[in-house]
Specification:
The complex is a heterodimer of chains A (116) and B (113).
Chain A lengths: L4 E3 L2 E4 L5 E6 L6 E8 L3 E9 L2 E4 L8 E7 L2 E6 L8 E8 L10 E2 L3 E5 L1
Chain B lengths: L4 E3 L2 E5 L4 E6 L6 E7 L5 E8 L4 E4 L2 E6 L4 E6 L8 E11 L2 E6 L3 E6 L1
Classes of the chains: A mainly beta (116), B mainly beta (113).
Chain lengths: 116, 113
């Protein structure tokens, strides 16, 4: 298995531009998570999906952020418009959820976003 | 504040020594997990311990869980330079919307050759 795939690996954009991050989870996994990591705030959960349905988006910073999961093998995280404070590494992770608990999550390599 | 808080924030040891990292949390958990992150990489799952377990081993890793003290420890024995990384504990907590995994701020481990 190729693991969780994220694209792009690096993104540099100007303030005000739209940014779209992409994620392909591990085949067979039914949960997908988007995280943001910065030195100041550590690793933050933005949103997660179970069976393609958004369950908890309370970590999404504001309306500029949106996430979709149109099918079991693809998810996007969009920032529109982007701001310099959005600069961070964004991770996608997937897992096979059983029952009502979270088990091991498999992380992608991350997308390093720089907004100038 | 974070559900899981690691201690110490940074640890520097010599190769061959043991490294112990601690994690404290605040609420009841389903399970507790430890992850490693090498610089510039994604997190890698190391070990999971359920709330009804007290100790678990995996190779050179030993994890303990004390639910009465709401704490866990990760022991890496006979450390190697390749163990240099950040280590995070993550607690799985049941909430009204379902359970969510919350990561601590991590311990930066440096193993000197």
């Amino acid at each position: 298995d190729a693991g969780v795939i994220q694209s792009p690996r690096h993104e540099v954009t100007e303030m005000g531009q739209e940014v779209t991050l992409r994620c392909k989870p591990i085949s067979g996994h039914n949960s997908l998570f988007w995280y943001r990591q910065t030195m100041m705030r550590g690793l933050e959960l933005l949103i997660y999906f179970n069976n393609n349905v958004p369950i908890d988006d309370s970590g999404m910073p504001e309306d500029r952020f949106s996430a979709k999961m149109p099918n079991a093998s693809f998810s996007t995280l969009k920032i529109q418009p982007s701001e310099p404070r959005d600069s961070a590494v964004y991770f996608c992770a997937s897992s096979l959820r059983r029952g009502n608990a979270n088990y091991e999550q498999y992380f992608g390599p991350g997308t390093r976003l720089t907004v100038t | 504040s974070q559900q899981g808080e690691e201690d110490p924030q940074a640890l520097s040891i010599q190769e061959g020594e043991n490294a112990t990292m601690n994690c404290s949390y605040k609420t009841s958990i389903n399970n507790l997990q430890w992850y490693r992150q090498n610089s510039g990489r994604g997190l890698v799952h190391l070990i999971l311990i359920r709330s009804n377990e007290r100790e678990k081993h995996s190779g050179r890793l030993r994890v303990t869980l004390d639910t009465s003290k709401k704490s866990s420890s990760l022991l890496i024995t006979a450390s190697r330079a390749a163990d240099t990384a950040s280590y995070f504990c993550a607690t799985d907590v049941l909430e009204t919307r379902g359970s969510r995994l919350t990561f601590g701020e991590g311990t930066q481990l440096t193993v000197n050759p």
